[in-house]
């Protein structure tokens, strides 16, 4: 049965088309494609070939009609070639049908750079001027004076307290010179996305460390005073004994007058030439104090040193009671100043503004009669010693003119109330940002 089916299929394929075979139709309909087919089929019988030459029709199992892929076009005499037509439909370049996903709108470039170059220690050292190099050298000399004072006058607690203050002054000179060098680099003060307020915030951390050192030195002196009081002044026999290992160590040996004279000269030199502890003085804000006391750090070192210099110059012994009293005075002052600095610098690190005039500033805004209806919110933050950021949100009346007037008045109040106004001596810059909402009344 399978053999009969195969023979029937072969007979169907051997029949030829009388008019034009599919192979010939394909060859004639696509002359440009370069398709060449032979006239005889490999399965064509002699009878089919004779019918084809005689023009007789041949019967196939399936009667296919040839369809050309592209209609022929007359180019020349007896030549047919396909012509490619343009596609149908709307195909303009800027057609809205092709812009399903529109590109994002063009935005202005960011006003802040992404980041600034952070200098290395080699770059910092290479950018130092000769004056700054001398400042670093002087800080090392100042620190060596502190060590020499402790070494040659180890018997007195007051001298130990003065030595701690001299070391604190040397640290202040070094930090001031370092901050001055770092001001040469844009990453120190300029804002960027990586550092919104620059790296000058690190100065607040360094000043906070100085305040912690000062407070710790005060508590350590208090502990030593109590220890000497309990033990009877160490090697003495009462409160009337002299505080010295050798009876002549404080008066006639010459160490005390020379040491205290060097301390006084070094302190005055650092205060006058380098303006020592200027950043800490701005943070303490002692504007109401006399001119002599506006920088308490220099007075705190000069006063005890001058007192010991006078006693040693007069040939008087420093008794235990006077030594403890002078040490207690120094310890109380530096503990108070250190605690005040810790509170104010900690407030700056916690993004607040440690000022007693803050309530007066907000009250002055609420009492405004020039168009401010209500104070909705207010934030004030001291970024570092001479930069304060003020953010105010108010309700104003009067339209655009009222908004402009409110912004100007709030900026003026920030300078006058918080900064003390022009001519007050404060080198504080206020960055005031006001958000206004128009009143419906």
Number of helices: 14
CATH architecture of the largest domain: Up-down Bundle
Shape: elongated
Average residue pLDDT: 76
Structural class of the secondary elements?
Answer: mainly alpha
The biggest sheet amounts to: 3 strands, mixed
Radius of gyration: 48 Å
Topology order in helix (H) and strand (E) letters: HHHEEHHHHHHHHHHEEHE
Oligomer: single chain
CATH first level of the largest domain: Mainly Alpha
β-strand percent reads: 5-15%
Major sheet: arrangement of strands: 3-4-5
Question: What ranges have pLDDT less than 50 throughout 5 or more consecutive residues?
Answer: 16-42, 233-253
What is the strand and helix layout of this fold?
Elements: H1 2-14, H2 22-29, H3 46-54, E1 72-76, E2 79-82, H4 121-126, H5 130-152, H6 157-182, H7 186-189, H8 201-230, H9 255-273, H10 278-284, H11 296-313, H12 320-349, H13 358-366, E3 372-384, E4 387-396, H14 399-418, E5 429-438
Parallel strand pairs: 4-5
Antiparallel strand pairs: 1-2, 3-4
């Amino acid at each position: 049965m399978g053999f009969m089916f195969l023979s029937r299929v072969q007979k169907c394929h051997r029949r030829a088309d009388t008019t034009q075979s599919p192979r010939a139709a394909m060859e004639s309909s696509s002359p440009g494609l370069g398709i060449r087919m032979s006239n005889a089929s490999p399965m064509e019988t002699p009878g089919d070939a004779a019918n084809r030459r005689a023009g007789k029709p041949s019967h196939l199992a399936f009667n296919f009609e040839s369809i050309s892929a592209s209609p022929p076009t007359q180019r020349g005499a007896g030549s047919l070639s396909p012509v490619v037509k343009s596609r149908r439909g709307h195909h303009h370049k800027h057609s809205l049908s092709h812009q399903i996903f529109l590109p994002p709108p063009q935005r202005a470039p960011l006003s802040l750079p992404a980041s600034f170059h952070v200098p290395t220690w080699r770059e910092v050292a290479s950018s130092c001027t000769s004056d700054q190099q001398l400042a670093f050298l002087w800080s090392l000399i100042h620190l060596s004076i502190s060590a020499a004072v402790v070494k040659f006058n180890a018997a007195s607690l007051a001298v130990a307290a003065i030595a701690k203050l001299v070391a604190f002054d040397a640290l202040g000179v070094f930090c001031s010179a370092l901050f001055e060098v770092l001001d040469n680099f844009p990453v120190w003060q300029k804002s960027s996305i990586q550092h919104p307020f620059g790296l000058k915030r690190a100065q607040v951390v360094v000043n906070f460390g100085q305040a912690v050192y000062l407070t710790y030195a005060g508590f350590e002196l208090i502990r030593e005073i109590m220890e000497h009081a309990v033990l009877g002044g160490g090697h003495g026999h009462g409160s009337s004994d002299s505080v010295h290992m050798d009876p002549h160590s404080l008066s006639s040996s010459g160490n005390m007058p020379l040491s205290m004279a060097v301390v006084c000269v070094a302190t005055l030199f650092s205060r006058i030439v380098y303006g020592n502890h200027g950043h800490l003085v701005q943070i303490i804000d002692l504007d109401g104090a006399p001119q002599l006391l506006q920088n308490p750090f220099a007075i705190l070192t000069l006063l005890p040193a001058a007192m010991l210099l006078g006693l040693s110059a007069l040939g008087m012994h420093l008794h235990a009671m006077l030594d403890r009293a002078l040490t207690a005075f120094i310890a109380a002052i530096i503990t108070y100043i250190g605690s005040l600095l810790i509170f104010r610098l900690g407030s700056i690190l916690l993004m607040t503004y440690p000022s007693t005039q803050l309530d007066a500033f907000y009250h002055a805004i609420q009492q405004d009669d020039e168009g401010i209806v209500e104070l909705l919110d207010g934030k004030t933050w001291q970024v570092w010693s001479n930069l304060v950021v003020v953010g105010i949100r108010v309700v104003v009346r009067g339209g655009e003119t009222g908004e402009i007037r409110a912004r100007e008045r709030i900026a003026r109040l920030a300078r006058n109330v918080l900064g003390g106004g022009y001519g007050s001596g404060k080198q504080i810059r206020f960055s005031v940002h006001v958000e206004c909402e128009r009143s419906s009344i």
